[in-house]
Amino acid sequence: MIKLKNIVKTYDTPNGSVHALKDINLEIKRGEIYGIIGLSGAGKSTLVRCINMLERPTSGSVIVNGKDLTTMTESQLREARKDIGMIFQHFNLLSTSTVYDNIAFPLKLAGKSKEEIKAKVEPLLKLVGLENKAHQYPSQLSGGQKQRVGIARALANDTKVLLCDEATSALDPQTTKAILELIRDINKNLQLTVVVITHEMQVIKDLCDKVAVLDHGVIAENGTVLEIFTNP
Ligand code: ADP
Ligand code: ADP
Fold first, then answer.
1. How far apart are the first and last CA of the chain?
2. Which contiguous run of DSSP H or E holds residue 174?
3. Rounded to 5 degrees, what angle do the CA atoms 144, 146, 149 make?
4. Which 3 state secondary structure label does DSSP give 86?
5. What ipTM, to 2 d.p.?
6. How far is CA 138 from the centre of its chain?
7. Which atom of ligand 1 is nearest to the CA of 38?
8. Parallel/antiparallel/unpaired status of strands 84-88 and 161-165
9. Above 90 in pLDDT, residue 153?
10. Residue 214 and residue 36 in contact, taking contact as beta carbons nearer than 8 Å
11. How far apart are CA 47 and CA 23, in angstroms?
12. Is 114 in the pocket of ligand 2 (CB under 6 A)?
């Protein structure tokens, strides 16, 4: 589902080059939940942002759903990005829009009609358990509810890949558990491929099938959660 081939990402800064990713190779299969762990600055965020080309790799290819995103024109890329949703630590919701309109936002961008939007948003509200919050604003929601909106918005375009950047780091343990359960349910029911950046070991153990350990821009280890965590 996701193939990263020889990904290099170098940031040029006034203070010189930062080698954030050095020759990353990784394959994530359809329906897998893949965790990315590593110390701060290891390159986790850069790696995940290369999957939807929020960051353009300096070299290498990013293949999602059989398509190489690195060779696409901007308009092809806009289309291909519909396959990929993302959720964030601080939710990144539109504060002046209702829950309904936050979820509708990517559909509006995609030029869908009001009827098409309604037909998508209503089941998504149900899926994330927010049917009765459609008209509320993000400031009226708890953290867990905000992340539910983020998840629904990420799924709006019949998403095939969900990228999660520290998506539960701002939530208490009980809310984290509920959000992880929701992600797991969606993963099962929709055959969604999920990539999770986290510094929380519990998230890896409760949620992920496989894990890659990033260290200074290289994958130090990867395998099943069992393999990685039973190594001496
Ligand atoms: P992590 O998510 O593991 O904390 P990042 O991917 O954010 O790691 O960062 C990897 C390295 O790249 C760090 O040294 C960071 O300072 C650097 N970096 C990240 N984004 C930028 C940027 N936009 N410009 C310059 N350097 C960056
Ligand atoms: P119209 O402007 O023709 O009444 P809609 O009722 O479809 O069109 O949408 C207008 C606005 O009403 C939307 O932008 C949305 O904020 C809200 N809305 C529509 N359907 C729902 C719904 N099921 N739940 C919550 N809000 C909705």
1. 31
2. helix 173-190
3. 115
4. strand
5. 0.74
6. 20
7. 3
8. parallel
9. yes
10. yes
11. 11
12. yes
